[in-house]
Amino acid sequence: MDIIKVSGTSRTSAVAGAIAGVFRDFKRAEVQAIGAGAVNQAVKALVLAKGYLAEDGYEVIFWPEFIDVDIDGKIRTAIRLTVELRYLTEDTGEPEAETEIIKSF
Predict the structure, then answer these.
(1) Which domain covers residue 10, as residue numbers?
(2) In sequence order, what DSSP letters do the residues of 12-43 get, joined into one string?
(3) Which of 3, 16, 20, 56 could pair with 48 in a Cys bridge, judged by C-beta atoms 3.0 to 4.6 Å apart?
(4) pLDDT digit string (tens) for 5-37?
(5) Is 62 within 8 Å of 84 (Cβ atoms)?
(6) Residues 60-104 pLDDT 10s
(7) What CATH number does residue 10 fall under?
(8) C-alpha 30: how far from chain center
(9) Neighbour-count burial of 73, counting CB atoms closer than 10 A to its CB (0-12 exposed, 13-18 middle, 19+ buried)
C-alpha cells in the first residue's frame, strides 16, 4: 500500500478519491502532509473521503501522528493521518472507542 502524499496545492476532491480508492482496496489508508497548507488539504480530503466511504457502507476513523521523513538528505517532520474501519460493539452497535471515552469522564 502506497502512502498518499498531499501538498498545499493538491486538489481536495482528487485526494479524497485516492483515499477512498486505497481504503476500498486495503481497508486502510495512510496520508502524509508536510506544512500547514498540506495538512489543511489533507484534512479536508479526509472529511470528503469519509462521506464517499459512508455511501459504500464503511464507517471510518482517522488519527494523526508526527513522523520524521528524509527529503533530499534533510529530516522533515510530517503528519501522517491513518484511516481505518471503525469497529462497533456487537451488544450495542456503538463505537468501541467512544463508549470507553464516555465512561472515563
Answers:
(1) 4-104
(2) HHHHHHHHHHHHHHHSEEEEEE-SHHHHHHHH
(3) 16
(4) 999 999 999 999 999 999 999 999 999 999 999
(5) yes
(6) 999 999 999 999 999 999 999 999 998 755 655 555 554 444 444
(7) 3.30.110.20
(8) 6
(9) exposed
pTM equals: 0.81
Classify burial at 42, counting beta carbons within 10 Å of its beta carbon; exposed 0-12, middle 13-18, buried 19 or more.
Answer: buried
Report the C-alpha gap between 82 and 29 in whole angstroms: 6
Residues 6+ apart with CB under 8 A from 41: 6, 7, 8, 9, 10, 12, 15, 33
pLDDT at 95: 58
